[in-house]
Amino acid sequence: MLNADLQDLARRWGASDVPFTHEVDAxxxxxxxxxxxxxxxxxxxxxxxxxxxxxxxxGKSALVGRWMRGLDNRIHLPLALTHATLSGSSVLSxxxxxxGKASGFRRETNLARIEQALGELERRSLVLxxxxxxxxxxxxxxxxxxxLGLNLPERPLFSLVLIGDEYLLSALRLRHQRAMYSRxxxxxxxxxxxSARLTEYLHTALRKVGLSPTVLSxxxxxxxxxxxxxxxRSLQLLARAAWLAAAVAECNQIGVEHVRxxxxxxxxxxxxxxxxxxxxxxxxxVS
Length: 287
Hints:
Blueprint lengths: L3 H9 L18 H16 L3 E4 L6 H10 L6 E6 L6 H11 L8 H14 L4 E6 L7 H11 L9 E7 L3 H5 L5 H4 L5 E3 L5 H14 L9 H11 L3 H17 L7 H10 L4 H4 L11 E2 L1
Parallel strand pairs: 1-4, 1-5, 2-3, 3-4
Antiparallel strand pairs: 5-6
Helix pairs in contact: 4-5, 4-6, 9-10, 10-11, 10-12, 11-12
């Protein structure tokens, strides 16, 4: 629930809501992202462990979250673990609870209840997503790997999507993680967005709250896209701060001066810290 001051500022602008917030869905469905979700569909159907990597803020969790919400619950049971500091035993306990069972204090008890819960799914298959997978301990990832082959089935008991930073693939190549690495059936990479998609996001977000894209000056839009470094998370934060600066100053357009204020306010501005500009022509990469 937004506070009264933010609601008042939005009304003064003639907006139905504050622009550039998580509540305003302005996701840009580029063709390569549609293709990537299709690959994830195939992985879920075939129960294939896959890896999705990319730099912080590029939209990995957002993309997988949208994909999970679109899965047919008559076929799949999507579960996401987002607390990457869980130990191996805690991962088992958490999975038991997420599968609707009471967790126990002994490892063998939790294993038996996980097996029971998976058996009760009948025709549905579990889709397990581990976010921030680079922060999981080797022991926790090993517990997940062992669950894939619980009681030596002919195929994995569930599909697994690991989401992590770019160095995660290299970490999985290390000897103590090679067993998980050898089971990966796909590696997908998200790259920073090109400027055209960043601008499309800005305009879409404004339209979603009933505002014309003209309330964002072209130089301001260009500066926001450049400062974001191609990362949608940074673009959203910068654009929101720029709008707020304009609204508080009682201006009816987001100009360059408001974007500069937002840039000065944000601790991390990727476009100013990146040593090299991203390549606009590069789509999401599948390897």
